[in-house]
Structure to design on (135 residues):
């Protein structure tokens, strides 16, 4: 695959007959835009994968009923003290991730980044570390 040039792709020299096709690198089909986040996560098997790997994650209130691996805050106005404390702790944990994502979205160099996805992951990790170090 590294021997393939752009001109070969445009000219049609690379395709199913030559042993390489674009469909082999395409991710699974997207779920329509009107699908709820939880339904999309279940469709793609994310919730089950988290449960199988015994990974706990934090989510907002709309993910209630996703399973034991997804931690959500309690709903309601009249909550007991321990439930309010749980919601406060949950918000503090989620806040760090939300701030990091907001920083990444506003960071101009990442908008026009055109390099390998593996390198992008390393760059994003570095930006998050710098963000938390400066806070």
């Amino acid at each position: 695959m590294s021997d393939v040039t752009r001109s070969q792709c445009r000219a049609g020299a690379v395709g199913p007959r030559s042993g390489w096709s674009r469909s082999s690198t395409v991710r699974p089909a997207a779920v329509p835009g009107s699908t709820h986040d939880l339904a999309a996560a279940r469709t793609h098997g994310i919730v089950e994968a988290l449960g199988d790997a015994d990974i706990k994650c934090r989510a907002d209130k709309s993910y209630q009923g996703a399973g034991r691996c997804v931690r959500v805050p309690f709903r309601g106005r009249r909550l007991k003290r321990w439930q309010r404390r749980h919601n406060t702790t949950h918000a503090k944990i989620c806040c760090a991730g939300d701030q990091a994502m907001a920083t990444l979205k506003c960071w101009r160099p990442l908008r026009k980044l055109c390099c390998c996805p593996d390198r992008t992951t390393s760059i994003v990790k570095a930006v998050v570390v710098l963000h938390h170090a400066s806070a």
In short: The beta strands are 57-58, 70-71. The helical segments are 6-11, 37-43, 46-52, 81-106, 108-111, 117-134.
